[in-house]
Design goal:
The complex is a heterotetramer of chains A (662), B (491), C (100) and D (167).
Chain B lengths: L1 H10 L6 H18 L7 H23 L6 E4 L4 E4 H28 L4 H19 L3 H19 L6 H32 L4 H10 L1 H4 L2 H18 L7 H8 L2 H26 L4 H24 L4 H22 L2 H28 L15 H4 L1 H15 L5 H15 L3 H27 L13 H19 L2 H10 L2
Antiparallel strand pairs in B: 1-2
Helix pairs in contact in B: 2-3, 2-5, 3-4, 3-5, 4-5, 4-12, 4-15, 4-20, 4-21, 5-6, 5-12, 6-7, 6-12, 7-10, 7-11, 8-12, 10-12, 11-12, 11-14, 12-14, 12-15, 13-14, 13-19, 14-15, 14-18, 14-19, 15-17, 15-18, 15-20, 15-21, 17-19, 17-20, 18-19, 18-20
Chain C lengths: L3 H21 L3 H26 L3 H31 L13
Chain D lengths: L1 H21 L3 H21 L3 H26 L13 H21 L11 H7 L1 H10 L3 H22 L4
Helix pairs in contact in D: 1-2, 2-3
Classes of the chains: A mainly alpha (662), B mainly alpha (491), C mainly alpha (100), D mainly alpha (167).
Chain lengths: 662, 491, 100, 167
């Protein structure tokens, strides 16, 4: 099946092209369009599955498929190549599996939208780009996918382009992503150059991990390279300081949010670090930065999640926070745990987003019938929906329990693994555990706040609208059920050793990913500290504490939002704090103030200022310029031939003068 | 007398100028046909000129495959050298001219200037460009440059009832003639230093007389001469005519100017640098390092605040010239062949983008602003997608031609050790994203403000756009073969 | 004794004068005349150098420069006439549609 | 005698060149330019290049300048009176002087050297300047000569296209 690797990205690409070109005029039928889109991803899923089984059964753990040469530069040969190894196989399953469910869901959710064909075309393209990113055998093929997901997210977030906020959000996502992308490119450039100066001209991932040691462990250059790559990862995976685009990305249709947040795009950064683990493991300083940024993001985003009233925004900040966990895992060298959490997060976060979509769908429907203009996404308008939407409610609840880290659900296993490594790893520390555990408690709190505001308590929706709220069709609920199921059982592939010891379940995932991560972890001695490795007490103690913290979070949320008027009193007591949290700590304003506005002004300044003023100003003399300034910008004349000629002459005089008189 | 004729005939080698000869022949033929054609009915002239370009391309291809062991065919006592370098540039010129002519037919009719001379002038311009690329003597290159420039002055001001076109033509003319003055003064000084106008002889003489390399007269001559070419390539600070002229000129001509003649000036520049001033490499790499950084940065920064898309693309073409300069600074095989590759890629992507503009504009082209493009992507899906492809390529996203081109020149710079230059280049292309993106935002995220229903889809323009897309994707996905050609083309 | 230097310096003076004129005059035709002055300065350089070096190339070059000057004159003046028809002026001050 | 003649002509050339740049009326500019052309033709004679002198008079003074004057008449440039110079005189003057200083510096610091040919005054006198030019032009410089013909064709076509009133 390996030789059919190219089929995996091929199907979604074809689906995208068919829907994009023929959807509007020739196909028209929503069912057919949706069917083609879903089928394309399902086909990829089937191929991925067979590849996965072959890989886990076979002895060959790394397979590179080369489909011809792309570019040759000196000794650097760049091929069109795909790479299948346990890491990419696992990612393929997550992307195509969750992706197909989301496609199926979209058929129901997007029913009747203008540009249905367009939506499916973009969605397939998105999956295609993500698959290229995952399968890319060298950094440039990965970069195609890397750029591609940014681009598709741009198209999808701005899908409702009539809304100005959607267009702005899309632009923001793209621009922020591009900042990250250039980190990636610069990192690649530096890597290529430094490895090249060591005599190895390559950007192939397998060769990079083989030759990474040439750069010297802990050397400055490897730190710089990995930091640049990490900058790329923060852009894509919404970490501090480049996380602002992700919450705004909620402007897109809900399935898009699910796709971006759960299975694709945002996991790209984590995946990329996992892909280059050999390189990153060599740079302890960078790893430290990653761990700290991850932990900080986890708690920072969780704190913002407290005060959001828009159901999707809560989930968005929760994604940022959970991604922080993954980076924390990567930073302390727990690569497997990071990927594990990526996987379980894909399940429960997809379920949460699709569930919220189902709620919004129902609310929208209800409000529409009642001719109300209330925001269907505002949780303050909801409440008591559990009776109306049983499937949605139960799946949402299961996913919430999973994300909160309640034992025996998938989130518990993966999060606990991360916490354990954060505390016990040779690259970790107690502070990281404290921060991460705190964030876990906050997660439990705001997620249950979300559930209680949405599904429990009295119904706050307008009475007329209330009657029209009902459960969504099967295409929407079926994915929910499947995802909820996965959110429960998904964790059992990676049961921590301490627990597995008693119930005789081995840690499948660790064994499976060993060929990818084992080498780096062994070489750079990244493991649980010796004094903790055999202490079951320590592990169970930490586990117990994290469960306790999660329990406290859940209990507080239920208490606050169901029983008492504590939140209102809290707001009354600390109005400023609440407002600050509500306004996302004024980060957007700060960014506007610090970066966006100066950049705009800088561009404007250089345009009007340089072309108009400097050249003209040199001509006219400073006094004249002052006069012109006072007269106002519109009196500044330019487009004069002679100013241009003057510029040329000055250029000539300066250049010749410099060379002749030096 | 007899002797003179024989001596004259002995120097003639038509094979060495065959493509340009074909083009001038067709150009004159078009002038004749134009006389007998009714104004406004010029489609057949456009197609005949396409035939001429194809014949010239065939001749070039044949010459390419016939390149022997020496890889060069001299003619006219070393005035032209038809080598791989010249032939590769021939293809760039032919592609630019063909795409330009394809998009012109309908455009000229819409604007009411459909006459045969237009096509003849484009063919003459292309021939001039070929003489610049293949000339090995200052005089040939200078005359090629003038054929090209004078045709372009006319073409830029071709819409003679349109004040903006007049202004563009006149500005271009005055500044172009002015820069010619500097170019010639440089040539005069160099002639004084070495006593020859032949570039190869110049190079050999300078290599043999090391003292001359540091002589102020040589350096001043070289710099003044470079100035003339830098003006044509629109390198900062000699770029200031570009936005005005590009904005005012007829759109197809703007497209053409930004690709063909620019490539021609780069060809002549490269021949001077590599053949003539080889021994002064340290001097000119330092100069081009600074100019490349300035050009990229200024071009991009100024493009940011433009609202007229045509003008924005003009500033962007300034910055693209800067990227090409990066390859020249690298001055190694990858960088130099990267420049050739970049110019070919740029011809496809930029002319493609302008072709979309030419189709989208109304008569008088008042609507080529960001507002005018609002919702364009939904009203004209095909053109919208095409524009996106070209913009991606201009941004330098993989897998498009623009990415491969930038990759080659930057990789060349990295290999030559100019890592910072490559970094600045990469940062600049990040900066360029902002303004290209605004076009896409306009096309896809704004409510349409006007009706695009009147846009017809003429066959020529469609072929042009499809060819450009094919070129952009081919050069991006499978750049290897063309890059090998570019490598063999470098001397 | 008049050497080639004298001619070259004279040529430099004329060239600078021409440049000065291009930068200061407003009338496009006068600017064009100043450019012709610059070209003539170059011609003088070429011919004096040709004489000094005892080789004809420079004089041939001048011949071509003259041809080019004639061609430029034809096209440039045609452009000016076209511009004048539209704007009733050929002052560079009126080249003001394209800017910023 | 030669020295005196040179300086006299040079003075006339520079003064008339200055007048080209400064005279208010375009016609006066053109007349001054004519003076410069004639002075240069004289120099060409002094430089043993009589053919170039003749061409200088014929092409520059006879053709180009006539064309310019014709256009000045055609456009009836009264409207342009008073618009003598643009506002940047001092800067332009500074730059002009700077260019001159640089070139002067360059010329002072270096000798024109180079591959010298065998065309001495004697050769010119015996063979004849015109024939020398012709020999070069039609053997070594045949291609540029042909390109120049295309150039003139382009210029004619361009001028016609631009200047005619209707399509």
């Amino acid at each position: 099946m390996y030789d059919k690797l190219w089929l995996i990205p091929f199907f979604p690409l074809v689906g995208s092209i068919i829907n994009g070109l023929f959807g509007k005029r020739y196909i028209k039928s929503e069912k057919v369009i949706g069917g083609i889109g879903t089928l394309a991803v399902v086909c990829s899923f089937i191929v991925s599955l067979s590849c996965f089984f072959q890989l886990s059964a076979g002895t060959e753990k790394v397979y590179e498929a080369v489909y011809g040469s792309w570019m040759t530069v000196g000794q650097l040969q760049i091929n069109w190549e795909l790479l299948l190894d346990p890491l990419s196989a696992l990612m393929l399953l997550v992307v195509t599996g969750v992706g197909s469910l989301i496609h199926l869901y979209s058929i129901g959710y997007m029913h009747g939208e203008v540009g249905f064909y367009r939506f499916f075309s973009y969605l397939n393209l998105f999956v295609f780009a993500m698959l290229m990113l995952v399968l890319g055998g060298n950094a440039l093929v990965m970069f195609i996918g890397w750029e591609g997901v940014g681009l598709c997210s741009y198209l999808l977030i701005g899908y409702y382009f009539e809304k100005k906020s959607a267009g702005d959000a899309a632009k923001k996502a793209f621009v922020v992503n591009r900042i990250g992308d250039f980190g990636f490119l610069l990192g690649l450039l530096t890597l290529y150059w430094t490895l090249g100066s060591k005599g190895v001209w390559t950007i192939n991932f397998v060769e990079i991990s083989h030759n990474a040691h040439l750069l010297g462990p802990g050397s400055v250059v490897v730190t710089v390279i990995t930091l640049l790559f990490f900058l790329g990862a923060t852009g894509k995976s919404a970490q501090i300081p480049l996380y602002t685009w992700l919450p705004d990305a909620m402007e897109g249709p809900t399935p898009v949010s699910a796709l971006i947040h759960a299975a694709t795009m945002v996991t790209a950064g984590v995946y990329m670090i996992g892909r280059m683990n050999g390189l990153f493991a060599m740079a302890p300083d960078t790893m430290m930065v990653i761990a700290i940024v991850g932990a900080a993001t986890a708690i920072f985003a969780a704190s913002i999640g407290f005060a959001q009233n828009d159901i999707k925004r809560v989930l968005a900040y929760s994604t940022v926070s959970q991604l922080g966990y993954m980076f924390l895992a990567m930073g302390v060298g727990a690569f497997t745990a990071g990927i594990f959490h990526l996987m379980t997060h894909a399940f429960f976060k997809a379920c949460l987003f699709l569930g919220s979509g189902s709620v919004i769908h129902a609310m929208h429907h209800g409000l529409h019938h009642a001719h109300l203009n209330d925001d269907p996404q505002d949780m303050r308008n909801m409440g008591g929906l559990s009776k109306k939407m049983k499937v949605t409610y139960w799946t949402f609840l299961i996913a919430t329990i999973a994300i909160s880290g309640v034992p025996l659900f998938s989130g518990f296993f993966s999060k606990d693994e991360i916490l354990w490594w954060a505390a016990g790893s040779t690259r970790g520390g107690w502070m990281l555990w404290v921060v991460a555990a705190g964030a876990a408690g906050m997660t439990a709190f705001y997620m249950f706040r979300c559930v209680s505001m949405t599904f429990w308590g009295p119904q706050k929706t307008n009475a007329k609208a209330k009657d029209h709220i009902h459960e969504s069709p099967w295409v929407i609920t079926l994915p929910l059920v499947v995802l909820a199921f996965l959110a429960v059982v998904g964790g059992y592939v990676g049961v921590p050793a301490a627990l597995g010891h008693f119930v005789h379940i081995p840690n499948y995932l660790e064994g499976f990913l060993e060929p990818v991560f084992g080498h780096a972890q062994e070489t750079y001695q990244i493991a649980i500290k010796a004094n903790m490795a055999h202490s079951l007490l320590a592990e169970f103690g930490l586990m117990g504490m994290s469960v306790l913290i999660a329990g406290i979070g859940i209990a507080l949320a239920c208490y606050f939002y169901l029983k008492t008027d504590v939140p209102a009193r809290f707001v009354a007591a600390f109005p400023k704090l609440h407002r600050a949290v509500f306004n996302k700590w004024y980060i957007d304003e700060l960014y506007d103030f610090l970066f966006v506005n100066p950049c705009k002004r800088f561009g404007l300044f250089l345009w009007k200022g340089f072309d108009v003023n400097v050249v003209d100003g040199v001509v006219n003399g400073v006094g004249r310029v002052m006069q012109l300034f006072s007269a106002g910008l519109r009196y500044i004349q330019t487009g004069f031939v002679q100013n241009y000629a003057m510029g040329m002459v000055i250029g000539v005089v300066v250049i010749v003068g410099f060379y002749v008189l030096r | 007398m007899e002797n003179l004729v024989q001596a004259a005939l002995a120097t003639v080698n038509y094979a060495a100028i065959m493509p340009s000869l074909i083009l001038t022949g067709f150009g004159m033929l078009l002038l004749l046909i134009g006389v007998f054609s009714k104004p406004g009915r010029t489609s057949h002239i456009a197609w005949i000129s396409i035939v001429g370009l194809i014949v010239a391309a065939v001749a070039s291809a044949q010459a390419w495959s016939a390149l022997g062991a020496t890889g060069v065919e001299f003619g006219f006592t070393n005035h032209v050298a038809q080598d791989g370098f010249a032939l590769f540039f021939n293809f760039i010129f032919l592609v630019s001219a063909a795409l330009t002519i394809l998009m012109s037919d309908d455009y000229l009719k819409r604007e009411g200037y459909a006459v045969g001379e237009y096509y003849a002038l484009i063919l003459f311009t292309t021939a001039g460009a070929m003489w610049m690329a293949s000339g090995t003597d200052m005089m040939t290159i200078f005359l090629g440059l003038e054929v090209l420039s004078i045709s372009l002055y006319v073409l830029a001001g071709f819409f003679r009832r349109d004040a903006r076109s007049n202004e563009a033509g006149l500005k271009y003319f005055l500044l172009g003639a002015f820069s010619t003055g500097f170019l010639l003064y440089g040539m005069a000084l160099l002639y004084g230093v070495v006593g020859t106008t032949n570039i190869a002889n110049l190079g050999m003489y300078l290599a043999a007389h090391k003292a001359l390399v540091t002589s102020p007269m040589t350096i001043a001559g070289m710099l003044l001469l470079l100035t003339g070419f830098l003006f044509k390539i629109a390198i900062v600070p000699f770029h200031m005519w570009t936005p005005d002229v590009y904005e005012g000129a007829p759109t197809p001509i703007t497209a053409f100017m930004s690709a063909g003649p620019k490539a021609a000036a780069i060809a002549a520049l490269l021949r001077f640098l590599l053949l003539g001033f080889d021994s002064m490499q340290a001097e000119w790499t330092a100069l081009f390092w600074v100019l490349a950084v300035l050009t990229m940065t200024v071009g991009n920064l100024l493009a940011i605040s433009q609202t007229n898309i045509k003008r924005m693309l003009a500033y962007s073409s300034v910055s693209h010239a800067g990227y090409a300069m990066v390859g020249i600074v690298a001055a190694n095989a990858i960088g130099m062949s990267g420049v050739l590759y970049y110019m070919l890629a740029y011809a496809f992507m930029n002319i493609g983008a302008f072709a979309v503009l030419a189709l989208a504009g109304k008569q008088g082209e008042e609507n080529l602003t960001l507002e005018g493009f609002a919702g364009f992507g939904y009203k004209r899906p095909f053109l919208g997608v095409a524009m996106c492809v070209f913009l991606f390529s201009l941004m330098g996203l993989p897998p498009t031609a623009g990415f491969a081109g930038k990759f080659y020149v930057f990789a060349g710079a990295v290999e030559a050790g100019y890592i910072w230059l490559a970094v600045i280049g990469v940062l600049n292309s990040a900066l360029s994203l902002y303004y290209y993106l605004r076009v896409m935002v306009s096309m896809y995220f704004r409510e349409p403000t006007e009706d695009f229903a009147w846009v017809s889809m003429p066959m020529g323009a469609m072929i042009c756009i499809i060819l450009a897309i094919a070129g952009v994707l081919y050069l991006g996905v499978l750049p290897q073969q063309v890059m090998e050609m570019a490598k063999t083309a470098m001397f | 004794m008049i050497t080639v230097h004298h001619y070259l310096v004279l040529s430099a003076i004329l060239f600078s004068l021409g440049t000065f004129g291009v930068l200061t005059r407003k009338n496009a035709i006068v600017i064009f005349m100043c450019i012709e002055l610059m070209l003539n300065a170059v011609n003088l350089s070429f011919i004096s150098l040709s004489h000094y070096l005892g080789n004809m190339d420079g004089q041939i070059f001048v011949l071509f420069i003259m041809a080019v000057a004639a061609a430029e004159a034809a096209v440039g003046l045609a452009l000016m006439i076209a511009f004048f028809r539209n704007r009733e002026s050929i002052s560079v001050d009126d080249f003001n549609l394209l800017k910023w | 005698m030669e020295t005196f003649y040179f300086y006299l002509l040079a003075l006339v050339a520079v003064v008339s060149g200055y007048l080209v740049v400064t005279c208010k009326s375009p016609i006066n500019n053109a007349v001054a330019l004519m003076m410069t052309f004639v002075c240069l033709a004289n120099f060409y004679v002094m430089l043993q290049a009589p053919f170039m002198a003749a061409i200088q008079i014929m092409v520059y003074a006879g053709a180009i300048l006539m064309l310019i004057i014709f256009v000045i008449m055609l456009l009836n440039m009264d409207s342009l009176k008073g618009q003598k110079t643009s506002h940047s005189v001092s800067w332009a003057a500074g730059l002009g002087v700077l260019i001159f200083i640089q070139v002067y510096f360059v010329l002072n610091r270096s000798e024109p050297t180079g591959l010298t040919g065998g065309i001495t005054n004697q050769v010119v006198a015996t063979v004849g300047h015109t024939q020398l030019i012709a020999q070069s032009l039609f053997t070594d410089f045949l291609l540029p000569f042909e390109i120049a013909s295309i150039l003139l064709l382009v210029a004619i076509v361009g001028a016609v296209v631009l200047a005619k009133k209707n399509v």
